[in-house]
Amino acid sequence: MSNAPAPQSAPAAEVPLSAPLYGASFGQAIQRFFKKYATFSGRASRSEYWWWALANYLIITVLYILIAVGGAYDPNTGLIVAGPLAIIAYVVLGIYGLAVIVPNLAITWRRLHDTNRSGGFFFLALIPFVGWIILLVLTLLPTNPAGSRFDA
Length: 152
Fold this sequence. Notes:
The chain has helices at 26-35, 46-69, 84-114, 131-140, and strands at 71-74, 79-82. By secondary structure, it is mainly alpha-helical. It has a two-stranded antiparallel sheet with strand order 1-2. A hairpin with a 4-residue loop joins strand 1 and strand 2. It is elongated, with a radius of gyration of 21 Å. The model is unreliable at 4-12 (pLDDT under 50).
C-alpha cells in the first residue's frame, strides 16, 4: 500500500474569447471584460455580466465614499464644500466613467445576445421610469441556446 498522490486531471481547455464563459469566476469575468473592451458581437454569460456589474458597483461606491469623506466644512457659509480628496475622487470618477462607458455597453449588448435578443434591446433602458427595470429583467434571464446565432 503506497501513499502515491492522486493523479491530477488535465486543466480545462481555455474558452476562446469569442465564446461565452459560463460559470466564470470574478477574476475571469473582469479579465474578459477588459479583453473584449469594445466587442459587440458574440455573447456574454450571466456570470461574466454580473461579476462585472458587482466590480463596477464596488468601484463606484468607493469613489463616492471618497467624495463624501473628502468634503470640508466651511465655517463662513456653514456648508460642506469639496476638499482636495473629493476633487481628486470626482476627477477619477469622471475618467473611470469615460473609460468604461463603451465596454459597459458592449457587455450588456453581448448579454442580450446570450438571451437570444438583439443588442438593440439596450435602448429600452431609455424609456422613462421603467426602461432600466426592463433591461434588468432581460439581463437576468437565463441563456437561450438559440442565442448562438449572434456568435461571430
